[in-house]
Structures are given as C-alpha cells and as structure tokens.
Amino acid sequence: MMASEMDKTRALLQSCSTESIISSLGLGIFCMVADKLLQFSIIHQSEWLRSLSDNAIHGVIGMWSWAIVIGIKKKADVGEIILAGFLASVIDIDHFFLAKSLSLKAALSLPRRPFLHCSTVIPIAALTLKFIMHIFKLKDSWHFLPWMLFVSWTSHHIRDGIRHGLWICPFGKTSPLPFWLYVIMTSTLPHMCSFVMYLTGTRQMMPSKPGIRIDV
Ligand SMILES: [Zn+2]
C-alpha cells in the first residue's frame, strides 16, 4: 500500500524531530573532530593504538547514529545502542580473515579490500537477515535488526570511504569521498533510515497531537 502524502509528511516530521536534529549536528561535529584528534595525538605513533581508536570511532558513530534513529527513551534502548556500535566496529575483523593472520601488519597491508567492505553486501545482508527472521518467526521486538545492520555498516563504509572510496562490487569503486560529504552523509543517514522505517511501518508513528493539524 502506498503511503499517502499526509503519511509521508508525518513520517518526515517525526524522523526530523528537534532533538534528533541537534543530536545529528553533534554527530557531525564529532566526525569532524575525531579524525583530527587521531592525527595529532600520541595515538598516531603506535599502529595498534591507531587501529583500536579508529575502530572505536566507528563504534561511537554507529552507537550515535542508532541513538538518533530510536531516540533514547527507556533503559532497554541502551543495549540496542551498544549492539549498533558493536556491529559498526566488528566488520573490520574481515581484514584478519583475508590476511589469514592475527598480525596487524598483515591485516593492514592487504592486496585488496576484504569482502565486508563491499557496500553491495549491506543491502544483501540486511535483506537476508530480514528473510531469516521472517522464516524463524522471530519476535516482533527484533524487527529493527536489519535496519540497525544497515545503519551501522553504512556508517562504517562512509567513513572508510574518505580514504578508500566506496566499493560497489562487482562494479568497481568510487574515488575517495570528500571529507564534507562524509560528514553530511553520516549525520543525515539516521534521519533517512528512520524516515523509511516510519514509511514501511517498522516504526509506529506517534498519533498526531490533538489540537495540532498539519495542512498539506
Ligand atoms: Zn573498515
């Protein structure tokens, strides 16, 4: 069923609440500052520290993005947010798989990019997860999981894109993303996701407040 213009407008308004816009401004600022801090600090001297903090930034961006999508309301949301951060960080282990070694040196000097860094994998993985959950009739409360995977992994790919571009296998890769584009894409991604979640009914729209009418 197609959403009516009215529904679309309401979905747009709800995915761009004042709090969520302020939080994504904060996320944008974090993106701008985090990588700069890495370059100037003592962290830069050690390969391990550099990789760990790089991975931690992926995790923080993943958590922050999901927090914008759901808006923290109850205690249980914190667990969800931590899971989103884990998902955003964990895909870097494919470096070690491809290197077939736990050596950081080997993982960082791969002849090609490891498979979880191919952006085509994201929609495929999200849809597969959705399908699996449908088959096994997983509880409704887990319906957000494919969306979380999408947001976390996409935010990781966008950030890696500053150095490597986006790799859309089997079609090839884009040139490295300009830094400003990375900041804009990262801070708007949660809004786009929650907009689509509202439209597809993954998230329930709040009933419109009595007394407030939106004329469209
Ligand atoms: Zn990566």
What is the structure about, briefly put?
The protein is mostly helical and 216 residues long.
Walkthrough of the structure:
With about 220 residues, the chain is an all-alpha fold. It has one domain. About 65% of the residues lie in helices and about 0% in strands. The chain contains nine helices and two strands. Helix 2 packs antiparallel against helix 3 and helix 3 crosses helix 8. The longest helix has 24 residues. The protein starts with a helix and ends in a 17-residue tail after the last helix. The site of zinc ion (ZN) has 4 residues, from helix 8. The site of zinc ion has 4 residues, from helix 8.
Write the layout of secondary structure elements.
Blueprint: H1 5-15, H2 18-40, H3 47-70, H4 76-90, H5 93-99, H6 104-108, H7 121-135, H8 145-164, E1 167-168, E2 172-173, H9 179-199
Antiparallel strand pairs: 1-2
Helix pairs in contact: 1-9, 2-3, 2-9, 3-4, 3-8, 3-9, 4-8, 7-8, 8-9
Bound molecules: zinc ion.
